[in-house]
Amino acid sequence: MLTLSQIKEKSSRRLTNLHPIVRSAATALIERCYKLNISILITQGLRTIAEQDALYAQGRTKPGAIVTNARGGYSYHNFGLAVDFALLLPNGSSVSWDMRRDDNNNQIADWQEVVKEAKALGFEWGGDWTSFKDYPHFQMAFGLMLTQLRAGAKPSTSAVESAYKVINRKEEEELKGDIFAVVKVNGVKVADGVLEKGITYVPVRIIAEALGAQVGYDSATRTVEITSTH
Questions:
Q1: 206, 219 Cβ separation under 8 angstroms
Q2: Going by DSSP bridges, is the β-strand pair 199-201/137-139 parallel, antiparallel, or unpaired?
Q3: Strands 137-139 and 180-185, sheet pairing
Q4: Predicted confidence (pLDDT) per residue in 120-135, tens digit
């Protein structure tokens, strides 16, 4: 069985160029699913305009089945605000898009458990769309339309703060204490830390990922590993 660090490493390349908040949410999704004995692989992160156009051509001017209705610039993938996932099978090398699998044997389809965790983190699920359902797809729009993104708009500071708050809510609920300190990274609030005897306690993942680093945890050795992406 793969460790959490090994599972996260398999997705790391596709997380690198995402918007930092989306990268944090996707990383948290991998971690939360791991706690449910579900391993997932991020199969797609940032997709360039050229890559999007090539994908759009599939099933139209090129062989294959149609997999997207979005041309280049018309997908949140093109702006680092979306990810696709698949279930990572027990052999650690194969993936599945079978939405009925129940490898953790809890009588709930693993796919639906992943979707539930993703929504709790603030992701929108493509499976909820009415026209073209995209079941492996999660995105964060931050209230921005694609026309705005194509014109150069970026998620606002307040929208990013709100997203961090949603992502960190579960971890913050586990913190004990009565005195809190606001923790900001580059002027953006990322968490409420607990003050105890002059020391501020805050989950290491929150700070590290806000600074662009990746965090892994090996439960077997109880080791936290921080890897800088710069």
A1: no
A2: unpaired
A3: unpaired
A4: 999 999 999 998 899 9
Enter the tokens of residue 226.
């921080």
Give tens-digit pLDDT for 38-87: 999 999 999 988 988 998 999 998 998 888 888 888 899 999 999 999 99
Q: Which amino acid is located at 34 in the chain?
A: Y
pLDDT in tens, 55-65: 899 999 899 88
The residue type at 196: E
Domain ranges of the chain: 4-45+80-228
Residue 147 CB contacts under 8 Å (≥ 6 apart), including other chains: none
Q: Do the Cβ atoms of 226 and 215 come closer than 8 Å?
A: yes
The domain made up of 4-45+80-228 has a fold known as Muramoyl-pentapeptide Carboxypeptidase; domain 2 (3.30.1380)
In 3D space, the residue among 125, 183, 136, 171 whose CA is nearest the CA of residue 40 turns out to be: 136
